[in-house]
Specification:
Its EC number is 2.7.-.-. With 292 residues, this protein is α+β, with helices and mostly antiparallel strands. The protein contains ten helices and ten strands. It is globular, with a radius of gyration of 19 Å.
């Protein structure tokens, strides 16, 4: 059997004095711990590569270092295979209702722009492209190989993905976070931070914007404000349709991510309920897109 997580942390050899370790909530692809020693407090993330989700911890580390250099994420203090140790911030983890606050959304948008435009200046090493439509194809293959209960749904979902890919172009490419859940934003009272770079890679900016909106249930007026603030111009019909297509794609990807996790994840989380929640959100968003 593998080493117990707390023993893994204790055996890192980087601590000084008495050690206190406590688990942190959240984390659907890794386990997180708060660790305090005589010098202060850190966060330790434990997680190996996850091929079915195309998660590479080497890519996550490179993105974390680039985000630190760009002033977007806290400092990386140490890393080892399957382990990432970061500075602990006394900060509030955002919730959906926080992201829906217009003032908070006004703070989030510049942070997203910095991620998109500044991080490539600091990224070192091979880089990923996180192309959502290829991710959906990957997940379909994993579900087929795993004889998932959702096999009967795949032809319809894949045909919709093909339509969405055609509708979401033409494309521009930026460096995306690609997992803009509310819990990945921290507010220390003075500034915002963006954390968790499991899926980082080059992508359309509309994927992050659509993901932010769909993950946090932004209403249409908030979505328009989001797009106008990001692009610094009014939203025309063409941009609105491209955005709606990519928002649908982000929801379909999240749905299929959960479908795959149902048969492959060992983390204690109700993936079946998460699949149902995101499937319902996707169906609603796709119906709206279909009516544009």
């Amino acid at each position: 059997m593998g080493e117990h997580p707390e023993d893994q942390i204790r055996n890192l050899g980087i601590w000084r004095g008495k050690l206190e370790i406590s688990p942190l909530s959240g984390g659907m692809t890794n386990r997180n711990f708060r660790v305090t020693d005589d010098r202060g407090t850190a966060v330790v993330r434990l997680g190996d590569d996850i091929p079915v989700h195309m998660i590479s911890r080497a890519n996550e580390l490179a993105a974390s270092l680039a985000a630190e250099a760009a002033g977007i994420s806290p400092r990386v203090l140490h890393h080892a295979p399957g382990m990432l140790v970061m500075e602990f911030l006394e900060a509030k983890t955002l919730r959906e209702e926080d992201v829906n606050n217009p003032d908070m959304l006004g703070r989030i948008i510049p942070l997203i722009r910095r991620c998109h435009l500044e991080m490539p200046k600091y990224f070192r090493g091979p880089t990923f492209i996180f192309w959502v439509f290829q991710v959906i194809q990957q997940y379909a293959g994993v579900l087929k190989d795993g004889e998932s209960d959702y096999l009967k749904d795949l032809p319809l979902l894949l045909s919709r993905a093909e339509r969405l890919e055609a509708a979401a172009g033409p494309y521009t490419i930026v460096f995306g976070h690609n997992d803009l859940l509310a819990a990945n934003f921290l507010d220390d009272g003075d500034r915002l931070w963006l954390i968790d770079w499991d899926y980082a890679g080059f992508n359309s900016p509309l994927f992050d914007l659509g993901g932010l909106a769909s993950n946090n249930l932004l209403g249409e007026s908030r979505e328009i404000s989001l797009l106008e603030a990001y692009y610094e111009q009014p939203v025309d019909e063409a941009l609105w349709r491209r955005y709606q297509a990519m928002k649908c794609a982000s929801l379909l990807r999240e749905t299929m991510w959960s479908m795959v996790s149902e048969i492959h994840s060992t983390i204690g989380f109700d993936y079946k309920a998460y699949t149902a929640q995101n499937r319902a959100r996707f169906e609603s968003a796709y119906a709206h897109f279909d009516g544009i």
